[in-house]
Amino acid sequence: QAQLVEAGGGMVEAGGSLRLSCTVSPNIQISTMGWYRQGVGKQRELVATLTTSGYTNYLESVKGRFAISKDNIKHEFYLQMNRLNSEDTADYYCKVVDRRRLAYWGRGTQVTVWGRGTQVTVSS
Predict the structure, then answer these.
(1) Rounded mean pLDDT of 84-93?
(2) Any bridge partners for residue 26, and if so which?
(3) Which residues, listed in sequence order, are joined to residue 105 by a DSSP beta bridge?
(4) What is the dihedral sign for C-alpha 69, 95, 46, 92?
(5) What angle do CA 64, 39, 13 make, to 5 degrees?
(6) Which of 18, 32, 92, 112 sees the fewest Cβ atoms within 10 Å?
(7) Three-state secondary structure call for residue 21
(8) What is the strand order of the sheet 76-81 is part of?
(9) From start to end of 52-124, where are the E strands?
């Protein structure tokens, strides 16, 4: 049985929004929760973290656009992503560190941001 399950990925037009969710197994006593992402050919990077005391940390490029939050009753946490751009295209993973400092990872959910295109005019 998966300990962490992500949902909410998909394809979105540049400028749009998506909300990712991570459902955490009830037997995990969460200390810190976070979202990471990995683009094609890139290293996995931290996107946002949230401690149970409410302290947050964000990747510089997502500050002001993304927000991490939690629902203690549902044992879930979320990543609201606004004003998405092509640089945000990646596989997103949720991670939890419990009170024993054990880390758990979700399997990932894909986010693809497609551009609006640009018109090319050819004249002769």
Answers:
(1) 96
(2) none
(3) 95
(4) negative
(5) 60
(6) 112
(7) strand
(8) 4-7, 18-24, 76-81, 66-71
(9) 56-58, 66-71, 76-81, 90-98, 103-105, 109-114
